[in-house]
UniProtKB/TrEMBL annotation:
One of the GO biological process terms: ubiquinone biosynthetic process
Cofactor field: FAD
Single GO MF annotation: FAD binding
Coiled coil location: none
Taxonomic lineage of the native organism: Bacteria, Pseudomonadati, Pseudomonadota, Gammaproteobacteria, Pseudomonadales
Family to which this protein belongs: Belongs to the UbiH/COQ6 family.
Keyword tags: FAD, Flavoprotein, Monooxygenase, Oxidoreductase
UniProt pathway: Cofactor biosynthesis; ubiquinone biosynthesis
Superkingdom assignment: Bacteria
Record note on quaternary structure: Component of the Ubi complex metabolon, which regroups five ubiquinone biosynthesis proteins (UbiE, UbiF, UbiG, UbiH and UbiI) and two accessory factors (UbiK and the lipid-binding protein UbiJ).
Residue intervals of the FAD-binding domain: 3-350
InterPro entries documented for this protein: FAD-bd (IPR002938), FAD/NAD-bd_sf (IPR036188), Ubi_Hdrlase_CS (IPR018168), UbiH/COQ6 (IPR010971), UbiH/COQ6_monooxygenase (IPR051205)
Organism: Stutzerimonas stutzeri KOS6
Name this polypeptide is given: 2-octaprenyl-3-methyl-6-methoxy-1,4-benzoquinol hydroxylase
Amino acid sequence: MQADLIIVGAGMVGSTLALALEGCGLDIVVLDAGPLEVAGFEPRAGFEPRVSALSAASQRILQRVGAWPGMAERRVSPYTDMHVWDGSGTGQIHFSADSVHAEVLGHIVENRVVQDALLEVMQRRGGLRLLGDARVEQLLRTPGGWQLKLADGRELDAPLLVAADGGNSAVRRLAGCETREWDYLHQAIVTSVRCAEPHQRTAWQRFTDDGPLAFLPLERDGDRNWCSIVWSVTETEAKRLMALDDTAFRAALGRAFEQRLGEVLEADPRLCIPLRQRHAKRYVQPGLALIGDAAHTIHPLAGQGVNLGLLDAAVLAEVIRAAVARGEQLADVQVLSRFERRRMPYNLAMMAAMEGFERLFQADPLPLRWLRNTGLKAVQALPGAKAMFVRQALGLGGDLPELARPLMAD
């Protein structure tokens, strides 16, 4: 099978790239190791454990590729405020969408909701070739670009290949792309819980002695007592918490959260995810580009991972569309480097900031505890500084691609 572009990975980032490029004149194949089937959605069904905190910039991208209506029909949970505090001190900070005249700070959305809405659009439009249950086993360079050999024996050829197949990217590994990576020696426990009090459309985050604990607001049939939790703890503590029965886990979670939303009444089954940071030394080589988690994974401290990936997809689509319009060779590393130059500095800066926060709030020495509490209090007291943080969370700063920019009426 021959194509102009093969996108490996039909998750949120790969599917967004495909839809952003639809209609540009390229023959595009999107393949994924799993089945490409839209799951039936039941509004009263329980929440998926994996969620994303989508920024306003990500919302605009998803709107412009046509996926947002399908997401809204299923389930999205807007939040207007964010409250962060240090469990070992008195420092705290409150962010509000009102401070920058915005309606919301973002939306908490189950990853499955985003993926199904994107897949639905791709299937409905029919301008892309989709291959499910297509696991890449071999990757070969050819005079014309790349040849992919799948587990079922099929072969695909294209001059340009995009890896959007996640943190454990098979394409990145098979292409020999080097990475820098390190283990946080922490794990994230994720689940959904129902609290005695409503979440007030607020994203809550407490820094504990073990790691950050986030309660992210969810809504189901008007019920605002549900939250998605992301609890970063040491490996030893994660093992202990995962071994607790439901009653003991809910009690431990409530104590760690200082009962800010009252008693934790219900908890769905828990997942435990090892936390590892990874960054590719290069995002591109001739005929190849890495985007999303295939290029970089980040600590879930601020829920920025998927937002970085969607911006990767939007920028790469912009670069490819411009190159097509100019009649350039898309596989040329000089063309692909335009994407890398725009995204790598931003992603590295965000990763460094999250790493700094993580280390600062894990620190035990008294001077560092004083520093973080003083810093939180200082930002809380400076409306201009708070507004800057809010604008960053909304995705209103930096080199935004066209798909992520506000309309004049926004």
